[in-house]
Design brief:
Putative glutamate--cysteine ligase 2, two-stranded antiparallel ribbon, glutamate-cysteine ligase activity, 364 residues, Creatine Kinase, Chain A, domain 2, 7-stranded antiparallel β-sheet, alpha+beta
Amino acid sequence: MRKIGVEEELLLVHPVDGRPLALSERALADGHADHLQSELQQEMIEIATAPMRGLADLEADLRGHRRRADDRARSLGARTVAVASSPVPVEPHPSRGARYDWIADRFGVTARRTMVCGCHVHVDVGSREEGVAVLDRIRVWLAVLTALSANSPFHGGLDTGYASYRSQVWSRWPSAGALPVLGSVEALDAFERELLASGVLLDRGMLYFDVRLSDRYPTIEVRVADVCMDLGDTVTIAALVRALVETAAAEWRSGAAPPVRSAAALRLASWRASAEGIDGSLVHPLTGEPALAIDVVDALLRHTSEALDATGDRQRVESGVADILRRGTGSERQRAVHAREGSLSAVMLDAVEITAGRIPMGPL
């Protein structure tokens, strides 16, 4: 069974009105926060699990990290919250350091105003050759994960009209988006060298593709999901990513060719998932045409069913997906709270309590 690990980006916010607070430097200052890492803005922190095989272990590790992060925030008069963009208006404070300074200088307002929180899932691969084969075969399915995790309908005090506005913000980076079909390790290396030779990017860490092969660890990193309010949704997304990786590797071993879909077409599929989430239509990964989101999600479950059976995750994942489809994603929850309370601060504070596991994600 392949190990999986999860990174979650969280916001640090005021416990009364939900305003994001620039506290990450203080949160990381005294050496007692080894479970936390800095991010692009000082209003953000990141937690990361150890690599795990069992979903129960992954969930327990995530829960512990969320609790410790929130305890740390409380010690500074703040809370942590898993929303993918801030409903409450904020002027971000860029993190300091040579790398962050370079990025801010190079990318200007894109760097200074980007304050969105994603969920990145890492999955073991056996070799770089297998890794590239996986890259080529899972790319058409990734927009479905964006839809299932959508948790950023508000941004800068406005309803954006999107389910995952984080995806729109992130797409402003010049290296974000879908990879082409590569076919070999040599092609991947040549592709990355070509991009880095432009001088636009600082290093490989700025290759912000939807999915990428790590140069430090034998892992695939899938980067398309919004951070999820509900911890169970995070585990569901992580398990689906592992099943997609295993399914793609099995297809490669059997000699099956990857689906043919251009990066431009996948950008459109990503846009539609960002706009409509699970409430409307998605671009079907196998046909390239619109289909009801519920039918596309069902196709994803059928596509990964053998891998889910092999890991023993099928019942857990099908139940988790059914929960999302029944009560909605974080995007629906945020809009429902806003409709009831008429306050974006209330939206943020409701999300704080769900992030901490104090209230469920169920219907209001």
